[in-house]
Amino acid sequence: MNCEVCQLKELEVESFEIREVLRCILHTIVFHRALGLIRPKDIDLELFEITYVQCGEIEVEKKIDEKVDQFISWIEKHPNKKSQICLSFYEVKSKQPSWFTNKIERLYWEQWYINLNVLQPTKAPVGKSHHSKLVMDPGEASEERSSRRTLLEQSLQEVLFQIIKFVNEKKDHVPPINDGVIYCPFEITIPS
Amino acid sequence: MSSSHNRSSNNNNSEGAKAEQIIFEFFAKSLHIILESRTPFMSSRNFSGEQMMCSPSSSSSSSSSVRPRDKWFNLALRECPAALESFDIGRRSTLEPLVVDVVLVVRPLVGDQMNLSGNRELIRNFSGKEYQSSGWNSDQDELGCETKNEQIIERWVVQYDNRKIRESATTSSRRSSSNKLQVMYKKATLLLRSLFVMVRLLPAYKIFRELNSSGQIFKFKLVPRVPSIVEPFTRREEAEMQKFSFTPVETICGRLCLSVLYRSLSDVSCEHSTPMSPTFITDYVGSPLADPLKRFPSLPLSYGSPPLLPFQRRHSWSFDRHKASPPSVSCSPSPTRSDSHALVSHPCSRNLPPQPSEMPTGRRKESYAEEYSPYQDFSPPPSPSAPIQAVSRGITRTESAPVRIPAPTFQTKQNIVAPSPHLKLSRHTSLKPVRDFGPGESGSAIDKLYLYGRDDFRKHSGMRLSSNSSPRISFSRSSSRSYQDDVDDPDFPCPFDVEYDDITDRSSRPGSFDHRGDIHEPLESSGSFPKKSQDAAVGALVRMLKKAPPLRQDVSESSIPEICWNNNKPARAQEIAVASITASGIALASKTTADAMEELRTYKEMKNHLLLSQSTSNPSSVTATSPFDA
C-alpha cells in the first residue's frame, strides 16, 4: 500500500492564531478519516467565519490539543520560522514476535503536511497564545490586521477545500472500515 | 454446474440488492446532510452542542441512542423531518436524480422602497451582479408591488449513473462482489464525510447560520426545496455559478455522482442583510404617549359627535364599578357640557394613562371609535363602527349629563314623588347593579340617586352631599339614562345608569333629604358646582371615584336613618337608599353614616320646603308626612 502525501497550502499566521488554525485543519483531516460511527460536532472559529467539523471523539480532541500546545511552545522558542506539522495515518502491523523484538510496526498510508509561517508577534505577550479566548492586540493597526485576517481566512478556506478535494480524489489507499474502530490511528509530528 | 450458476446468480442478486440499498441510503443521507445545514432551526450544530454537554465519550453514549438510519455510513445526524419528508416524496426511483435547490427568498415590504433597495443591495452583493440580471423570480401582487424575490443560490444534484456498466458486475466471484460492496460502501462513506464538511464551507451556510443564531428578523430566508420538476439553469445563470463535483463512487452497476452549483458570496453578513431589529413600540395601546388627551383638540370630529373624553370617563366609572376599586384607568375624559360643547381638560385623566389590559373590551372599542386623535395610532377595533357610534353618542350625552342638571331644571321638577311603576321598571332595567343590592328596589334606589343629585343640592344650598358623592351621582344618573336610551346593554355596569326623567321626577322632593345636616355639607361644596368649571367638577368626581372604597361595607356598618318613601318602609328604604348608592358604584371616598344622614337631612329640608310652598298655595292640600320623619 502506497502512502499518499498531501502538502497543504502555506498559511501565514500569528502566534495567537496558531491554535485555531491548527485545530481547524487537524480536526478536518481526522474527521475524514474517522470512518466509524461518529456524531460530528460543529465548531465555530472565533477569529474567522469558518465552521469546521470534529468527529466528536474526546481522545482525538485531547491528542490534537496536546500537540498544538507543544507546537506553540516550540514556536515561542523559535520565532519567525516556517514550520511544518505532519499528520500521519497508519495501520498497526504487528511483526512476528521474536525473542529480541516485539515491535509493532506502523504502516503509514497517508501523510498530511501543514505548512505554517508564523509571523513575529508585535506586542502580544507570551501568555496570550495559550489563552483559549484570543484577544486582539490593541496596538496593531486595525486595517492592516483586518486585511491580513481576511486573507488568512480565505487561505484557510482554500486549505479546507484542498483537503476535501484530496480526500475525494484518493480513496483507494484508505484502509477498510474495521468494526469497533472509530477513527484511523494517527500521529502528529511537530518540528523538534 | 447449474447449482453453482444458480448460486452465483443468487449471490449477484443479493449483491445487487445490497448495492441498491446502499445507493438508496446514500441518497437519503445526502439529502439529510444538505437539508439539516440549510433548513433554519434544523441543524446538527444544536445536536452537537447537546452532545458536548452530554457524556464525554460519544461512542459509548451513542450506542444506546443510535437509530438504524444513523448506522448507515456511520454518520449519526440530528433528526431532520424535512429531509425524511422530502426524500419520501421525491424518491421514486434510484435512477432519478435528486435535486435540492437552496433558494434565497427576499421579501421586501410592500411600499417599503427603502427595504426594497436594501434587498437589492443585498442581492447585488450576493451575486455580484444586478439582481434583475438573472435567476431572480419576482412575484407581484395585484398592486404591482414586488412581494417576493427568489434566487437559487445552490443546487445539489445527487444521481446514480448506471449507464456505464462496470465489468465487475459481470464477474461471478462472490468475493470480489462482496469486496466491491465494501469498497463502494467505504468510498460512499468518505464522500459523505466530504459532503458534511463541504456544506459548511459554502456561502449559503453563512446565511443559514445568521438566520439560525441571530434573534433578529431578517428580510430574507433560506428555503431548501426538492423540486419534482427541475428547471435547468440558463447558460448565463450557470456562468455565474461555481461548480464542485465530488469524485463519483463506483458501484457494481454504475456510479454515484454528487455535485453542487453554488453562487459566490461577495459579502453576505448581518451588515448587509439589514435585519429588522426588534423595536420597542412606544405608542402601544394605552401608553402615555398615546394619550388621547394630548392630541384631542387637534382631531377632527370624524364620527360626527363630540369628543368622547367624557365617554371615557364614563367607562372608567363602569370599570370602577366592576372592580369595586378606584379606577386605575383614566382615559379619563373631561366632562362635556352637552353634546355640542367642547371638551374641557381633566387633569386627573392625564395622570392615569389608560390601561387596556384592565379595560373592558367594550370600552376599548368605544374608545377606539371615538377618540380619534389618540387612537389614530391604534389598530381599528374589530367591531363595526355603527354600534360604536351609537354608543358613543349615547355616552356623549351621558357624559354631558352632569352639565344638564342645572338648577332651573331641578326647579321645574315639581313632582318628586315615588317613582312611577314604569319608571321603576325602566330604572330597574337600567340599573342592573343596583338590583344586586336590593331586590326590587332599584327603582327606589334610583330615586335616591335622584335625590342625591347634585343639582338638588346645588339648588338648595342647605343640603349637601359629600364631595365624593353628589357630583358622581348626578353624572351617573343622567349619563346612565342617556346611555340606556341609546344602548340597550343590560350588563352595562354604570353606577349612574339612571333615567334622566327620574331626576326631574324626584327633584320635586328635595325636602325629604334634609334629615341631617352633615349631608348638606358636601352639597354645599357641590352647590357651587354650576359656578365652578365643568372640568373641575368632573375632575373632582373622578378623584372621588378613584378614592372611594366599596360601598358594600358601608351598608352593613353604617346606621341608616329611616327614610320613608312611598311604601312607608323607612328602614328598608333607607337601606335601599344606601345600598343603591353602593350598588351604583359611587365609591364615596370616606363616606360615613354622618354624610349619608346629612344628605337625607338635606332632602328632607327640600321636601319640606316644597310642601310648604304647596301648602301656601293650596291650604287645603294635605301635608304629606315626610318619609324621613323618624
Automatic annotation (TrEMBL), chain A:
Domain of life where this protein originates: Eukaryota
InterPro entries: ATG101
Keywords (A to Z) from UniProt: Autophagy
Pfam families xref list: ATG101
The family this protein is said to belong to: Belongs to the ATG101 family.
Name of the protein in question: Autophagy-related protein 101
Organism: Camelina sativa (False flax)
UniProtKB/TrEMBL annotation, chain B:
Record flagged with keyword Transferase: no
Domain Autophagy-related protein 13 N-terminal positions: 23-264
Spans annotated as Disordered: 322-397, 413-439, 461-488, 500-532, 611-630
Bias-annotated ranges (Low complexity): 325-337, 464-482
Biased composition range(s): Basic and acidic residues: 503-523
Keywords assigned: Autophagy
Record PANTHER family: AUTOPHAGY-RELATED PROTEIN 13B, PTHR13430
Protein name: Autophagy-related protein 13b isoform X2
Gene: LOC104783686
